[in-house]
Amino acid sequence: xxxxxxxPIVGPRVWHxxxxxxxxxxxxxxxxxxDIVELEAAIANIAALGLDVLDITRDNFLLPGLGAxxxxxxxxxxxxxxxxxxxxxxxxxxxxxxxxxxxxxxxAHLGEAVAQNARGHALGHVYDLGFDASKPTGRxxxxxxxxxxxxxxxxxxxxxxxxxxxxxxxxxxxxxxAVYNAMLAERPDLVQVLTETIYRDRRGEIxxxxxxxxxxxxxxFRDGNLTTNYVRxxxxxxQRFENLPRxxxxxxxxxxxxxxxxxxxxxxxxxxxxxxDIQFLSDHYIMHSRTxxxxxxxxxxxxxxxxxxxxxxxxxxxxxPYYEFMGKTASGRPDGYLMPGVTLTAPLDPEDxxxxxxxxxxxxxxx
Length: 367
What we know:
alpha+beta, 28% helix, 17 strands, globular, Double-stranded beta-helix, 7-stranded mixed β-sheet, 4-stranded antiparallel β-sheet, 367 residues
């Protein structure tokens, strides 16, 4: 059990959605014509050099003007509100490789891309592949189902919108600090419950020498700083292991409370995704969700987002339990789902966008 004085969180990462909606100029950056000229010159340079998407770095994807803005976004993610939007990337005139190069290049100015699944995908595709998220190895981003408020296991998660759905698929975010403060005011006993060990399912993506489950509290403290990690589905799925403790009534009550507050319109910021939008979030300070959606029948028109998980040297120091779940990059940040013997890849086909039902087989092969 963590011994930490529980007190309200203060600072710019504590905000409420309705207020933040009136301040879009503070968190949304609209690309100028000069920004687009810079971006397309950088894309052309990568193509001329014959580099793979994974070869893109901050040093070979030069953005003299836009790069300075991206560094301000870096500060917003880790020292400010915890999120930012870039709008106006002309994806309608890019093929998938050009869009991936543009996105990966912008991401390289924010951090190092890490593995999003056991297959080592550093570039992910949020696309309905028809999988069942309720199954042990199911991943919600491969479905059209509603995603409840959660965090991803990286310092930063980014989403580039290529195509929108026929209806639904609304993105929403919430300040984890604001949710924590509201819980603390209402039920400090349940906040304490969420600082204690909670077992999670690895969903078949098991590093060598590790158990198929791991332990990580929801609220974690390091040097007095709060970071939040909450994925209800992995908590529920861990109950399939008979040797793990059963969820207690207090834990279930705490999960209900955090979800109720996180989904309260007084806390939520709804964000419309348009083609060419990039959303960047700090996973340590922001929880995000998505409504269910109806897609177009034609594959070329279906909802399609590209995803990055980034390790950032500017991100906050993390409590030790994070590293029971994940390993570390060379710089000491969480490395996502990187498995021994697996190398990073950047697939351009959404049909190769994730492990889906084969996660257990892939994890066993990798280990």
